[in-house]
Predict the 3D structure of the following.
Amino acid sequence: MLSSLDKSMVKIKNYKDLLGKIEEVTKQKELDLSAGEDLSIAIMNLISIEEHLFFTSQKTGKEKYLDLLNEVRKMRASLLREIIKDYEGEVWCISKHLLAASMRVMEVGTKELKKANKKKAVDLFQKAYQLYSLFWAINLQVVKVEQVEKVEQEKREDKSVFAKIGEMVQKAIDCCKE
């Protein structure tokens, strides 16, 4: 029989192992990340502001926008440190890009919704949420990277691994807790 420490170090060899580990951890903890979720959305918007300041500097030829960009970047990095406590390798950048990609895909979905392309909008919103869920799965440290040998790209119950992670993160995070 494996002790809980031994069980936590078991290698994750496929998507079933990965999803099982996420489910195990989320059952053990009730997580209230409402402040973290709000902060992550604020960080998404700061990343977007950085992008707009860059493009404005290039379109106008005015370097003052780059000075503002640098100030916003410092604020974004400071706030991101509140969510991402420990990281190795490129987890910091992966996390930042997951938030940025989630925000952009969400914005494209909103534009499709405005054009009455609801089916396309729903697909884009699902993708945005999958990216956002992956951000939280990584930063809740549900699974340590060294435990993952190979995660197979299979489907479970006709749902992608992204979809299952999203469902589990949703169950673990209750943004409405007070």
About this structure: DSSP finds seven helices and no strands in the chain. The chain has a mean pLDDT of 76. The chain has two domains: 32-83, 89-171.
